[in-house]
Every structure is written in structure tokens, then in C-alpha cells.
Amino acid sequence: MTEIIDGNAVAAEIRAGLADGIATLADAGVTPCLATVLMSDDPASQTYVSMKHSDCEEVGIEARDYEIDPEAPADDLYATIDDLNADPSVHGILVQMPLPDHVDEREVLRRIDPAKDVDGFHPENVGRLVAGHPRFKPCTPHGIQKLLAAADVETEGADVVVVGRSNIVGKPMANLLIQKSKLGNATVTVCHSRTTDLAAKTRAADVVVAAAGVPEMIDGEMLSEGCVVVDVGINRVEADTEKGYELVGDVDFESAKEKASAITPVPGGVGPMTRAMLLWNTVKAAGDAEAVDVELP
Ligand code: NAD
């Protein structure tokens, strides 16, 4: 029987576990606070930000909303970041990507105080992760580690293939999995758009993490019997539904399920974990900033 790894259930456990840390902070008179900054008219970005706010509300994190006209000069965004960096009541800052073309995304990532960088994309935090002493782990790969642990998947000694080398998923995933740690200690191969014979690589893997953004590109033929499949992809494809589309992953779920011993679905797999780990990082940021010893799930 293939195990369908339930990201909604594991994310709910993480949120419940965070309640203890939030209560400890409350005893010390601290309410963790996440500031989100949106500089976009894109409905998807607006939806992501509003979901982050409702997640915060549910667990008792204060969420503050900053919106900047997408036509405004980049300096308006930089000034907002500077103000949030200087505000001691704000523990986490999240600038929703993508940004308008006239804004330098790298400058934005560098500008956020690394101690408030709950996405974990500041170069200092990336460096710390690579060096093996992370402050904030990026939410999606951190969530995947928690998901694998919850499904009792041992990464120690496992051959893991990560498909995708982006800065937000593929690279930090590989970096986390090679760390000398309980949820690491894997042997990792990172594949990407220039990889030759991807199927040979994925077939040799005990665990495949698919993060390419290509609908259903990994099917059962590309997998070995009994492997574990983590599908990060969220792709809109045209479909005969009310909305005119449906969301599919990077994995062809039906054929992959026939081979895998465990697999994450889309939706309901990695997505909810990404959301939960943002809360996790915000609670950690508050504990660190206020020197309160917070236990994290
Ligand atoms: P990206 O476009 O930045 O990176 C995609 C990577 O995949 C690139 O490194 C590219 O080299 C590689 N790639 C592309 N085509 C390939 C191919 N045919 N074979 C092998 N490698 C190939 O994307 P991203 O931001 O890393 O996101 C990847 C997917 O994960 C997207 O579908 C995105 O929507 C989804 N995503 C989901 C979550 C979540 O919480 N579930 C979070 C982030 C991203």
C-alpha cells in the first residue's frame, strides 16, 4: 500500500506545536509579529499574502499588512523595509515575490535585517545554512524535511535526487539534506534543465524531490519500486472545471503511486507545510529577538 503523505495533517500538528512557544512568549509579554509587504497587483500574490495573514491569526501571531503601489519608485519599498527593520515590535519581514521589474530583487533580499528574514533568503542566512549553522531555514525545504520525518522516511544514507536548482527550493533543499543532522545525512544529486538523462538519475533514487515547475514531468517509469516521492510543483493547467484550470504537481500522481512506497499529493502535500514553516520561523524570530527560550515543534 502506498502511503499518501498528508501535508495538511502534519502542518496542523506543527501549528498546534507552535501554540506552546507562542504561550511562552505571551508569558514574557511578547506577541510575535510578522510584517508582509506586497508590491503587486497580481491576484495570486494578493491571495498568498491574505492566506499568510489568516494563518498568523489562527495561531496568535500578529500580522501587519503593508501595500506599496507597484508603480511607485523602488525607494518606497526600501524605505518601508528600513522602517520595519528599525521597529522592535516587528519580528519577521516577508516581501512577497515577484516584484515589479524596476525593483532590484537582490537589493530587497539584502536589505531585510537577517534576524527578521523569515523567508531565509538573505545572503547571510543562505551562507549560514550552507555552512551548517542555519538561522532560518527556507520554508518549503524545511517543511519537506518535517514531512519526511513525520512519514518516518530516513534520509540518513539515502540517495536523494532533487529536481530543480532554484534559490527558494532546489538549492536550499539540497543544502539541508547534506547537513550532518538527523533530517540530513543524505547523498544528494541536484538535477536541472541541463541534466542529461534525468530518468536514469531519478530511477537510482530512494527519494525524489520534484521542484521543476513542469506539469507531471515525472512519471512512474522514471521511479524505482518503493521510492519516496515529494512533489513540490504547483502548476495551473487548463481543465474542464468551473475555473477553467486545475492545479497539478510536477509528478504524474497516478503512475508514480504505483511505484512509490510514499508520495505527497498536490494539493495537500508540500503547500500547507510551506505555510506552516513561515509561522515557525516567525515564532523563532520572536524568541531570538526577545531572548525568550521558545520550544519549537
Ligand atoms: P523555478 O522556475 O525557479 O526553478 C525550476 C527549476 O527546475 C530550475 O532550476 C530548472 O533548472 C529546473 N527545471 C526546469 N525544467 C526542467 C526539466 N525539464 N528537467 C529538469 N529540471 C528542470 O521554480 P521554483 O520556484 O523552484 O518552483 C518549482 C515548482 O514548485 C513550481 O511549480 C512552483 O510553483 C512550486 N513551488 C511550490 C511551493 C509549495 O509550497 N508547494 C513553494 C515554492 C514553489
TrEMBL record:
UniProt keyword list: Amino-acid biosynthesis, Histidine biosynthesis, Hydrolase, Methionine biosynthesis, Multifunctional enzyme, NADP, One-carbon metabolism, Oxidoreductase, Purine biosynthesis
EC numbers for this chain: 1.5.1.5, 3.5.4.9
Domain (Tetrahydrofolate dehydrogenase/cyclohydrolase catalytic): residue spans on this chain: 5-119
Catalytic activity as recorded in UniProt: (6R)-5,10-methylene-5,6,7,8-tetrahydrofolate + NADP(+) = (6R)-5,10-methenyltetrahydrofolate + NADPH; (6R)-5,10-methenyltetrahydrofolate + H2O = (6R)-10-formyltetrahydrofolate + H(+)
An example Gene Ontology biological process: L-histidine biosynthetic process
GO cellular component terms, semicolon-separated: cytosol
Record-listed NADP(+) binding positions: G164, R165, S166, I234
GO molecular function: methenyltetrahydrofolate cyclohydrolase activity; methylenetetrahydrofolate dehydrogenase (NADP+) activity
InterPro entries in the record: Aminoacid_DH-like_N_sf (IPR046346), NAD(P)-bd_dom_sf (IPR036291), THF_DH/CycHdrlase (IPR000672), THF_DH/CycHdrlase_cat_dom (IPR020630), THF_DH/CycHdrlase_NAD-bd_dom (IPR020631)
Pathway the protein takes part in: One-carbon metabolism; tetrahydrofolate interconversion
Subunit annotation: Homodimer.
Function of the protein: Catalyzes the oxidation of 5,10-methylenetetrahydrofolate to 5,10-methenyltetrahydrofolate and then the hydrolysis of 5,10-methenyltetrahydrofolate to 10-formyltetrahydrofolate.
NCBIfam families to which the protein is assigned, alphabetical: PRK14167.1
Family of the protein in this entry: Belongs to the tetrahydrofolate dehydrogenase/cyclohydrolase family.
Protein's UniProt name: Bifunctional protein FolD
Provenance organism: Halogeometricum rufum
Lineage, opening ranks: Archaea, Methanobacteriati, Methanobacteriota, Stenosarchaea group, Halobacteria
Gene that this sequence comes from: folD
